[in-house]
Every structure is written in structure tokens, then in C-alpha cells.
Amino acid sequence: MSVVFSPRRIALVTAFPPGRLTLNEYGLHLAKAFAARADVSEVVVIADRLDHPEAELELGPKIRVRRVWSFNAPLSALRIVAALKAERVDGAVFNLHMASFGSSEIPAALGLCAPLAARLAGVPSGVIAHNLISGVDLEQTQLKGQILRQRVVRLGGAVITRALLAANYLTVTLASYREDLARRYPHARAMLVPHGTFDTESRNLMPSRDRPLRIVTMGKFGTYKRLETLIAAFQKLRSQPGLSGLELVIGGSDHPNTPGYMASVAESCADQPDIHFHGYVAEDDIPAFFAKARASVFDYSATTGSSGVLHQTATYGAVPVFPRIGDFVDVCRDEGLDGANYDAGEVDGMARAITALLDDPDRADRLARANRAAALGMPISEVAEVHMRELSMFWRSPEEETRGAEFAS
User: Which domain holds residue 229?
Assistant: First the structure.
């Protein structure tokens, strides 16, 4: 008699909308990708607690959200593992970056021990590591000039990396991270799985010349993502013939380590009506945010992983303008994305890069089409497929489950 293999209950530990922590949109789309699979009966999202009561998203019967952990809370890992055990899930995927659980070192580090703790508690666990401390230029972050603290963070980062590798498996989104791990930890179970694309619908990208005369930027600003260079470049662009109607739309919010940054920048731009501060860009608004812009500008002095905003930019046809540094270079090499480039922090260089796109809409359209095609090469459904395959290696066989059920009865 053949044994029917039952669909699995999967936990996804992640920031999740309507919460606004980093990677929340990625968590939403990954949850949907798991729920769309016939071999998944339920996705239990172990999510961040909300600062204020808000209605949960309507996501269908296969996705259930439990708000368990809090940003900057030192006991998040314990609460996550307790929830996983209570839910009796078949496996857990942790959607993480190095500051997922806190803006200061101790709660961030303790939270990142959750995958190892889950595995030790008997829950097969995999990690999506969107960045690694070893891949971040700390001198370009809020730790600039703090040599001793940088050394402490590097040491702690090495310990946390080992803890993450002690989960059942780990994936990274950039080949450079995989190469670094292979060099440092040759026996670790770590693999490259690109970021993935959320939107795979058939779309006709609006030609550049038909889009509003608009450039956009989006992110959590104040540390290595800032706005001063972009605003100065925008002011130069506005003085050029034919660009007096150009507008800049800024989407996003403060980085947790720089509260008040956006308010201070907005105040300094109060007399510039063509600079608009959109605030947080909700998931439903993201397609229009990028599809109605000619360029998406990244005013970065450093990088910390494969940029979700870069992938959204590519998906909806705004041409990215970014410095050729760090992970931008790696993503272009690994995934075939491209755009206009400038030297980080250089106002004139950024202005020239944006001008070149605005003056040549045919080039902009070629870049937009190529980026859209490249982004579609790894849909989020394939990311979910990898994690189901990896988790299945740690599940009991159908025959073992049947024998266990018979014994229990």
C-alpha cells in the first residue's frame, strides 16, 4: 500500500507588514510563495510585534501571522523558539540581515542566535542571510572613526556568522558572500541563492519619454544611505535647460540608528516644492512609485547586501543610478543588472549620470528592458523551492512518519 506524503507546515521568521522593519516586503512575498505550493499546508509567520495596533493583511487561509518578537528586545530568540515549538512546524526559514533584531549590538546578536537555538530544539532551520558583517565597510557606517567598536563588531560578527552557519543550512544572496564563507568555513553548508523577483506578471514597461519628469529614491536613510548628495545633484539638474520641471520623490523613513534624520532634511528643503517626501511606501504603492519614474537614485557611501530596492527598480523599469561600490558591483556581475554610475559622494558625477539618462530615453529604455529580463531570471517561487528542498533533507521519510503515527495510536 502506497503512503501519501502529507503537505508540510512551514514557519517563516521575518519582519512582516504592516510592520515596517527592513525585509518586511521580502518576508511577505516569500510567505506567499510558500503558500502557493501544493506541498505546503500552512505558513506560520513568526513576525515582529507592531508599535501600534494595525489590521493584519488579508493573505488567505494558508498564511497565519503570529506577532512574537520585538526589535531591540534581548529575549527575541527565546520567544521565537518557544513559538516554533508550540506550533509544531515541520521546519523554519529565517529571513535575516545582521540588524534584523536590533539597532544595538547585544539584542541584534542575541536575536541572530535563534536559528541555532531552533535547530537544537528539534526544528529543522534554514537561514536567508541578506548580508554578513564581513561584507560591510564599517568605516562608511555610523561606526566611522570608532576603531575599537569596529573591532568589537567584527569579532561579534565572526561569532554570529558561526552561529548562523550552525543552523541546518544557510543561503546568501551574493556570490562574494558565498566565496568568503567558503574560504573561512570550508565545511559549512552554505549556498548562493539570488535575491529573487517578486513581480513576474507580464508587463509592458512605460517608455522613459512617456513617464513623468521624475526621479525617485527609497530606503531607510541616515547612515550609509543619505540624501545630501542627491539633493545637491537635483538642484544642479533643475538649473539645466529643459529640466526646470524635474521633481524628486523621496520614499522611506529614518534608519533606526538615526531618528529625526528625515525630518531634518525635509525641513531644510521646505522652500523647494519639487522635492516631495512620500514617507513609507506601502507594498501596494511600490509598482507605481517606480513605474512612474525615469530614474531611481541610490545615494550610498557603502552597501550591506543585495539591495531589494535595486530589484524593485529593475522590476518596474526605472533605471538605477548608483555608485560602483561593493555589492552593487557584485549584483551587476552576478545577476546582470545595470544602470548609470557615479563616484560615491560626488555631486557633479551623480548629476551627469542622471542627465545622461534623461537626455537619452532610448538608452534608458534599453537598460530598463534588460534589467526587467534579468530580474525575472530568479522568481521568488524558485527561492521557496530551494528552501523546501533543503528543509526536506531533515524530515523523516513518509514510512517513518507512518510508523510513528501507528506507534502513537
Answer: 208-375
